[in-house]
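To make this tangible, we now present a fold written out as tokens:
***
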Amino acid sequence: MLFLRKVMNEDVDLLFTWVNETTARLNSFHSAEIDYEEHKKWFDKITNSTEQLQYIMMCDSEAIGQVRLLVKEDEAEIDYSISEQYRGNGYGKEIIRLVKETVRSELPHVSKLVAKVKPSNIASISCFVRNQFEEKFQHYEYLMENFEPCPQEVKTEAESSGGGVKILCLTNNKNTISLFDWVDKRCKIEIFSDRLTIDILLYYRPELVISYNYIYLIPKECIEYMEGNIINMHISFLPWNRGFSPNIWSFIDDTPKGVTLHQVSEGLDEGDILFQRRVEFDSDNETFETTYEKLNDEIKFLFQEHWDKIYSGTWKSYAQKQRGKGSSHTISDLKELRKQIDFKWSENISEFLKRYKVTQMKRNSYRYGEE
């Protein structure tokens, strides 16, 4: 059974260990390692405070994580963390659920809960969104007037032992949360936003890894360990526009546009294709922003349509070379493009292409004059 209890004097060392865990510091706005004497002063202060309330989340007799509420008048700010050994079991979502229940019963004057989360901490953002928090300017917010008790999720022994995740979801962009929330309703997942290592895979033991808007290259040893069970979601019609900013280059190079699910290999976006779809656009009525959003919608639909095969591993793949040589671009290509002609995501694509054509003509004319 999961519940929150108020912090006790005996918890000082436990909290010191948790606050200095590497992942906890990376996700904190104050990432420096905490000195023990400094920690003790802070601990003494909060144990005697009416404005800072500290709780430990328990699973029966095991301490799972901590949450602190900073109360100011009718508002309470949430700061929480889950112990490293218990991550990957959905406890982040559960601790926020318990906070809402605790505030309702113990702090009836509080009408609003808020949380500040690093944009890179997609796992925590997902936990708040799944607890009906709404994104506001630089924070997430929940109005207690919307409170409805939610049943506690019942976990099997395997689920609560750390690891055994069905799907490990790699992402650094919150526009992936809606899809991963959809997947979470169908199997056990963990959202991960840092660099993937073999140790992470050994801890979570996923049957499948999904990479979607993930900024890090996946190491060779991780690819080999998963034996073809890492799928990347790429918003281009592979083999065209591998690499960075495929949406932009598909218009500049006038190449096929679309979305692709493919196996991850050592070469960037070069793995075998599982599923893909062409997407057509009218550049006179589109911007880079609107096409990016539509491509992300399309790739989510494609994933959902083929979910049964993805979940069961019964897909059939084929090599990209069957589609032709294709094209690829690096982040350096994008930087060079911006030196030549800058643009905004909100710019009409046809208007941009006209400017780009003029810029290229001038560059070619200059080079011809030099020769």
